TrEMBL record:
Its cofactor is Fe(2+). The keyword Signal does not apply. Belongs to the extradiol ring-cleavage dioxygenase family. This is Glyoxalase.
Length: 281
């Protein structure tokens, strides 16, 4: 387990994604991504890597409409693999299936990028040891370079059998309408620290991770919140270590005048761009 994804840090645990055709989406997440179905109904399916913890929940709204650009919402969610060898196995699997993908070496990590059949973005990555990350004045050095595909593939020749059970939700990257406004919300209300900037983007974390949450205006400054029935992100979870710290977060949200609704297993709120967040323990 990554030390950045356990207490006392606050981190992303699960994403709920709206899709147009549930069965098609489930087949993709099983056969291309390598998650397994934990529970399934007519309209929802929760997917897991370890057979216990849901990482991705798919939902087919009754009046669903396709994803359209120029809205806030999901840029990608990112599944974190335990080892570089796991990335080798996944890379070879993508090459063998012929599924289109992109890639990037970000200094702190090596990543592969794909979209599901509905256009929801997914990153699958592994982290270089944090002792190798370079920090200066509270900011971590990140870039986007070409990956060393041959070097990665040389790490493992294991056959692909789905995602390893140690796979977790590493981070989420969101489209917003205003970076400064959203950054202020995540910094001042939810307590995340900004650790890197890209053009029109900010990267934030707790516990000196390279990022648990990233935000950008690459869909346009002022991009509106999408319709509720549009394909894309429904909500993502922030995991708190206990009820006391979660209540402290709820109190800060309420003090800031942000709506918080008690749900069955959490508190539902939204960032200034309308991206819904479920606070869980």
């Amino acid at each position: 387990m990554s030390k950045f994804h356990q207490e006392p840090n606050v981190y992303v645990g699960e994403v709920n994604i709206k899709v147009r055709e549930l069965d098609r989406a489930v087949a993709f997440y099983e056969n291309i991504i390598g998650l397994r179905v934990l529970e399934k109904t007519d309209h929802t399916a929760s997917l897991t890597a370890n057979g216990k913890t849901p990482l991705v929940t798919l939902e087919q709204p009754s009046d669903v409409i396709p994803l359209a650009g120029h809205h806030s919402g999901l840029y990608h969610f990112a599944l974190l693999l335990p080892e570089r060898g796991d990335l080798a196995v996944f890379l070879r699997h993508l090459v063998e299936t012929g599924y289109p993908f992109g890639a990037g070496d970000h200094y702190v990590s090596e990543a592969l990028y794909i979209s599901d059949p509905d256009g929801n973005g997914i990153e699958v990555y592994w982290d270089r040891p944090s002792s190798e990350w370079k920090w200066e004045n509270g900011l971590v050095e990140m870039a986007t370079l070409q990956i060393d595909a041959q070097g990665i593939l040389a790490e493992s020749d294991e056959p692909w059998s789905g995602l390893p059970s140690g796979t977790i939700m590493g981070h989420i990257h969101l489209h917003v309408g205003n970076v400064k406004q959203a950054e202020q919300f995540y910094n001042e209300v939810l307590g995340f620290n900004t650790v890197s900037h890209y053009p029109q983007a900010a990267f934030m974390s707790t516990g000196e991770y390279h990022h648990h949450i990233a935000i950008n205006t690459w869909q346009g400054v002022g991009a509106p919140t999408p319709p509720k029935n549009m394909v894309g992100l429904k909500w993502y979870t922030l995991v708190y270590s206990n009820e006391e710290v979660r209540q402290s977060a709820v109190a800060k949200l309420e003090q800031a005048g942000v709506s918080v609704i008690k749900e069955l297993d959490g508190y539902l709120t939204s960032d200034p761009a309308g991206n819904q967040i479920l606070l869980v323990i």
